[in-house]
Amino acid sequence: MPVGIExxxxxxxxxxxxxxxxxxxxxxxxxxxxxxxxxxxxxxALTVAAFLVLKHSGFNTIWASTDALFxxxxxxxxINRSLFVDSVMSAVLIxxxxxxxxxxxxxxxxxxxxxxxxxxxxxxxxxxxxxxEEMVWFAAWAMFAGILYRFYKGSTSAKVLL
Length: 162
Description:
Blueprint lengths: L4 H21 L2 E4 L5 H20 L4 H19 L4 H25 L3 H5 L9 E2 L2 E2 H21 L3 E4 L3
Antiparallel strand pairs: 1-4, 2-3
């Protein structure tokens, strides 16, 4: 099943929120370092390659992208360990933000599962009323997108002193 424009736009929306939510909630700012252009491009290329290999190996899209995003986040954290907390907290905050939205969606549109998801690609396991695959994907995307810019900038997080 091809990826539609709405999925791409939605992913960028969540990625944008993930990139700043940790910094906003915990009053953090980026300390600039040396830009890591080459290594960032390598991590991005490896993440995309992992997705393509997994997708063409029979994984469904959500699990192929989830695994690839976790790989990309792990690589960035392995290179810059100071991004670990940012990555994990971005995931926690995004999942905490998304759950209430899912609850409202399912309250208003009880048949949303059959409309928005390919049922054959889901395990049928719901976690607090939402498909577990969706929540794991949100966590993976937030872990990856939440630190990508800081990784590229070679930055670490510092507490903002007001």
